[in-house]
Structure formats: structure tokens, C-alpha cells
Amino acid sequence: MINKLVDKIKKTGAPIVVGLDPNLKFVPSVIIEAAFAEYGETLEGAAEAIWQFNRGIVDAVYDLIPAVKPQIAMYEQFGIPGLVAFKKTVDYCREKGLVVIADIKRGDIGSTSESYALAHLGHIQVGSASVPVFEEDFATVNPYLGIDGIKPFMDVCRKEHKGIFVLVKTSNPSSKEFQDRIVIDDDGSQKKLYEIVGRAVDSWGSELMGDSYSYVGAVVGATYPEEGRILRNIMPKAFILVPGYGAQGGKGADLVHFFDKDGLGAIVNSSRGIIAAYQNEKYASYGETAYADASRAAVEDMISDIRTAIDNR
Amino acid sequence: MINKLVDKIKKTGAPIVVGLDPNLKFVPSVIIEAAFAEYGETLEGAAEAIWQFNRGIVDAVYDLIPAVKPQIAMYEQFGIPGLVAFKKTVDYCREKGLVVIADIKRGDIGSTSESYALAHLGHIQVGSASVPVFEEDFATVNPYLGIDGIKPFMDVCRKEHKGIFVLVKTSNPSSKEFQDRIVIDDDGSQKKLYEIVGRAVDSWGSELMGDSYSYVGAVVGATYPEEGRILRNIMPKAFILVPGYGAQGGKGADLVHFFDKDGLGAIVNSSRGIIAAYQNEKYASYGETAYADASRAAVEDMISDIRTAIDNR
To answer: What is the ipTM for the molecules in this complex?
Structure first.
């Protein structure tokens, strides 16, 4: 799947991923009203609204991009109906040929971590049947519990040719609270915790290589360009998933060090900046009924911003 | 809810929680066969089997214990039907008067973390309606992203009188990989990372106190008794959720330092050791049809083991 992701990035010329994180505040009123008319102001109504919203955006942008990243929290918040909408979104995106990166940030140990890995990237055994469950292509994983939480995902990735992105340096302001702590390394030198985690990602990933990159990638926030440069060197074979572009403050020019010399090795996520583009002054002329066209324009502008930054570095 | 948990521990004399982590391998064949006869070897069939299994155990032990801890991964692995079984289990346990600690280990940032918090501990706004979603009482939370991931949970806990347990030192062997790293503290002294995280839990929790303990608790594995002693001192107001008893190797005598001088302040989890007791040689005479009675006997033995250890310290 890492090979497929790289191929699709080369074909589209777009090292970007659209974050399908549907907040009800982003959904045009015409969609909300239709959903509530059918299901009421219920979890089912909310789930129908976000599914219709997602479908419009996917239809408008799928030919421009290699991948989408649905954030499962935005579906889980609407309970079972929300998770049904998550599954419909995953299935629809895969039908459209998109790579699906599930932003689930799961992290547990042993058989529990294996259950998450099988549910999201593999098949679960039920009696004599081997049943696919959520069927995403990649999942994000939290490293705090160490290799015990990662290895079950790696085992499933090896079998299914799927991949993971391990949280290394997250895009939020308080990521420094623990991730930037100065650690005394085994040789007595001082390193930041995220460097230690990045080194582990590099080591784990060396056992699970695709053609050019590992099936074990990393998450490094666009809001930390200098840390991106450091981690690019620590993890030369890891594909880097870069959140924080746009609404969180990251710009194309900040991102050049996340890419390797071939202009590959990273994929930049934007969620609100794309899916709620019509609410941004720059794209307001589209109006809410043409929200998906506004998203397409925002995708084109994002691709241009990042390609220009890579070409001019 | 932390006050309710403390009250129920006092009333039952049982500082223990039963982990409802149903693996199909634990479910007696008679239950499996009935579920597959009705739904086939499908996710629905698996979900029906674990729900019936759970109900039997809850009916057999609910009067002995203050709380249950369903591990959501064991339900999520069966997709939407599995999560329906999770919700049915949560609802059933609450009807029985049990405190429900949802072992979800979620951790994200900003509005995403808020979505998880609202889904599991609060209400979600859908139009003009405020809708409860999964309705657990406590949730486990991963600290790797710092306060940005914790504060949204704390805000919901404050409003709803619910609580969280933050992962500090997990029970698995590789928890040392990052959690035990030597960190240079702000004053130049050296501490383990879990001590830094524990100190943060203490600080966060001081803003959100119940009568005797904070709504912000901590997870510290039974497999690390010395670290439990250290963390008990660092976080005097945090209730400690202690996994790793029984199947993972922790014994009652190892646990005395997790409790404070009143014999409170900690709650010890056992999952497989209780719910699959009938598969253990010690309780094998019950046979699989009386699996729930075996679980009751295992609960009684666990309470006795821990109470004896506390009384003899």
C-alpha cells in the first residue's frame, strides 16, 4: 500500500491528503435540513448529514488527490450511526480509487492492539470465516506504550500490505509538553523524546520495507518545520504524514524539509481548509450550495502552494 | 462519579474492576453455537456471542464489585455490530448500578479530543438537541499529545461529573521503551518520563477535585509495584487504575503500595483471570456451562487476595 500511495502521488503530482473531518458546523444548511427532515435531530440525522457532505467533497476532488484521511473521532462522536457513516465514507473513497488513511490514533498492547490492527487493516476470524471489518489502507498509531503496541500492527501490515503512521511530533502547541523533553540517551548524549521515538520508527520500519519507503511511517506536524528537518534525517525511509497545514498555521514554504531530495517522502494533510473552504473569505463566492467546488479550488491552490515550495527550495 | 466510585468500593469492600474484554476464545461453545445459528459466522454472530457472554458474567458478579472496564478494542474488532454490543454492555452494566470505566485509550487534540470526550462522557449537539452517545462514566486517555489532548476531556468531566484515567506507566513489558526514559527536568534533576507525566496528572487533577480524590486519575500497571509506590507519592489525589493483575503476572502482595493509608486510592483490574476463569485449572470443575459461576468464584478469590494484602501490610 505504501507503493500504491507513492505511485498515486507521482501520478497526481499532489503530495497531499484531504482530511475528511466533518464537523456539523461545516455542513451546508441544505444538507443538514434534508437529513434532519428524514431522521430528526438525532445521531442518525447527524450521520446522514456528514455522509452526504463527504460524498459531495469526494466526488469533487477525487481525481486530483492520492488519498483521504478520515478522522474517526468526528464519526465516533455520533455513536453507532456516525461509525456507519465512517464505514460508508471509507468504502466510497476506496471505490473511487483513493488510498484511505484512517486517523484513529489507537494504541494499546498485545492482543488488544492486535484487535485494533485486525479491525482497521486486516481480517477478523469468526468461526471458520475470515471477515474484513473497517478496511482502511493505513492507520495512525500512538507510540506511548512502546513496541508492544506497534508490533501487532506491523504483523498485520506485513500480511495485508497495509501501513501505519506512528505519532512522533504532533502539530499541536502542547506537543512540546512531553515530546520535546530532553532525554539522556543510552550513550549519554542528550536528545529530545521525539528524536528517540523517530529513531524507533526508523528501526521498526527497516523490517517492513516497500520499494522505496517503509510501511511504517510517521506523523510530524507542519507547525514544526525545524523538527521536520531533523526527523527527515533520522527516519530516511519513513513516509511522513504532515498535519497542521492551513487552518493550524502551516504554510507550503514551511514544509520543504519534510520532503526528500526527490520531492517525495511526505504527504501533507489539510482538513478544515479544504472541506470548509466555502466558509473561508477566499472561496466565499462559491456559496454554500457549491461547497464542493470551493473544496476543489482549495485543493488546486494547496497543490500549487506545495509544488511551488518544493520546486523553489 | 469519582465520589460514586469511592462509595461503591467502600460498600462492596472490593477495590477491583472486572475487565469485560470478550475474546471469542473465552466464550463457551454453547453460546457461540447459538449465536452462529442465528446470525451465521458473521460480525453480527460474533457480536451476539460476546454480548450474551458478557450478560452472563455481569449477572453473576454485579453485586460483588463496584465497576467494570470494557476494553473497546474487543468490540471494535467486530465492526459496527461489535460496537452495538459494546453499547448494550455499557447500558446493561449501568442498569445494574455498576460504574463503567471505558478503556478506550483515546488521545487527540483540540476539537478532535473534544469529540471523543463528548461521545464517551458527555452529550453531542445535533441541531437543537443535546444527545447522549456512549454514556460511560470514566474513560482512559493517552497523554502523548500533552494537555491539548487532556483538557477537552477535563472540560466535559467538569460539566458531567465524569472522570478520566490518564496512561502514566502501562503494564506491558515495553512500557519502559519510552515511559522509563531518563529526562532532564526543568530544575536540572533527572527523572523518568513516567514521573513527569505523573506530576502533570497531579497538576491537572488539582483543578478538578471530588470529595477525596480527583476526577483525573492515572493508569499504572500492577506489573510495576516499585513505580506504583513512587507514583502514589507523586499523585496523592489521583485514583489509580491498576491493570495487569492475574494473567499479566501481578499479585495482591505487589499492589499494596498503589493504595493509600486508608486502603483506598486504587482499583485493580482483572480481565481474562475473571471472565475466562472456567478455562483456568483452578476453576475448571465449573465446566463451561457454569462459566459465570466460575467468574464469581474468581472475583471472590481476587477480593480476598487484595484485601488480605492490604490488611497485612
So the answer is: 0.96
